[in-house]
Amino acid sequence: MAESEGSPLAFSTSNLPLKLYINGQYVDSKDGKTPLAVYNPKDGTLVSDQVPLAGEKDVEAAVTAAEAAFPAWKKTTANQRRDILLKLASLIEQHNKELARLARLTLGAPWASFGAFEGVVCSETFKYNAGWTDKFAGESFPQENGYLQITRNEPLGVTCGIVPWNGPLAGIALKAAPALATGNCFILKPSEKTPFAPLALGALIEEAGFPPGVFQILSGDGSTGALLASHMRIRKVSFTGSIATGRKIQEMAAKSNLKRVTLELGGKSPAVVFDDCNLDNAVTWCVNAITANSGQVCYAASRIYVQKGIFDKFAAKYAEAMQARANAVGDPDEPSTLLGPVVDKAQFERVCGFIERGIDGQQGKLLVGGKRVTTGNTGSGYFIEPTVFQDVDPNAEIYQNEIFGPVSILNSFTLEEEVVQKANATEYGLMAGVFTQDVNKALRVASEFDSGMVGVNCISLVHVNTPFGGSKASGVGRECGRAALQAFTEPKTIMINMQYT
Ligand code: NAD
């Protein structure tokens, strides 16, 4: 639906949402903590210093409202929940451009290369989960032992989601939609760096018909997240973010009430490109994978291994395409821009630090990029050239760590067994890709990758109907697909004595 159809979104870039959304209402924080400030990464200017920082009283108010709402919400019919989720999905679709503008204000992601995608993932995920409400059935078992045994998938109660800044809209739906579809109440804690699109959802949640307390939004920083993760009456935390914070979340969950935990953490995803691949296809996927959202994507293909026979050809095409992407860097508010800034000064300094140490420490040969972009009107923003290091030392920092910027490494290999070993030799295991026209090799390598997701002739993508998540330190549990519904429910076993008269 076009942006202008239907009623306008209650908020805009000149009327920012600056209140918490608790119990069906926009309210001021009760804790009186100093509000948070956010800046526009395209020029470093202050956007607002009035973003509410939810504290203990606000968390308590949200949990109390959710507890009050839970019994009735749990008992709504599957069709009622379906209709409300579908209404929210269509409102998000209708307001996708306005929501993307609110997200872009502090994220800097251009509409053409990321903004549109984000909103689509968000609305599609609500639709997908709406379809499950009357299909997520339990099981029944053979009753020859004299008992009819059945299971029901029971909601957990009050649940919460803590999300990062790099996917401020999509990240919400991956957690909220399965939680709500299965009858849980859900409290969202967006990132302190991208609060506006999530806070604006409050108006749409109300319009969609969610009863007060069912779906609430608390803006804040890590301190708010910690209050949720350690809360004694929240039964589940679904977290997406860094490994360091993920560890703390798991610890807080264990030390409080053993709440259920799902962790979606970082990645350093390998793309393995064999001699027999379709070269242009491999180059296109690898370039898009590390430049979308300025490389600030958990499953970005940041390590590329190319077989020796085509290495030079691949390197030349990849370098050319990355350079072309550098020429498309610009103001994220311009429709033609494909590559915007990184999210803020701290992220800019972090990514530039990796690049500088990579160059100074000769961790590899700089093939493309390596500098701040200062062309046109980008000089005061946090723009970084797409950057590629070639022949990187496997022990080097840029090889081992998630940089979370438009920076990749390009190494060569000879044998299949050798590259599988190299691809698996980090603590990450989120996604991997294999590029070849040999289906046997593709399936062999796909099964050897130690990662939660594998692309064959593609990489760095998500489908809402299949499990999404990582192995090893990249995460615990899965989002998307049926797995996400399981993560927000518990089977209850009911045993019926068939001999009872
Ligand atoms: P982060 O860990 O700094 O923050 C994530 C969220 O956790 C934010 O909302 C933050 O306020 C909150 N938080 C911070 N400290 C906390 C604490 N002590 N207790 C509770 N909550 C706390 O991560 P980030 O910098 O926002 O995001 C980038 C990271 O997220 C990258 O590592 C990236 O790979 C990862 N990520 C993973 C996925 C995935 O699905 N696997 C998707 C997107 C991003």
Automatic annotation (TrEMBL):
It catalyses: an aldehyde + NAD(+) + H2O = a carboxylate + NADH + 2 H(+). Its EC number is 1.2.1.3. Residues 26-494 form the Aldehyde dehydrogenase domain. GO terms for molecular function: aldehyde dehydrogenase (NAD+) activity. Transmembrane segments: none annotated. Gene3D superfamilies: Aldehyde Dehydrogenase, Chain A, domain 1 (3.40.605.10), Aldehyde Dehydrogenase, Chain A, domain 2 (3.40.309.10). The active site is at E264. SUPFAM superfamilies: ALDH-like. It is an enzyme of class 1 (oxidoreductase). Keywords: Oxidoreductase. Pfam families: Aldedh. Belongs to the aldehyde dehydrogenase family. This is aldehyde dehydrogenase (NAD(+)). The lineage of its organism: Eukaryota, Fungi, Dikarya, Ascomycota, Pezizomycotina.
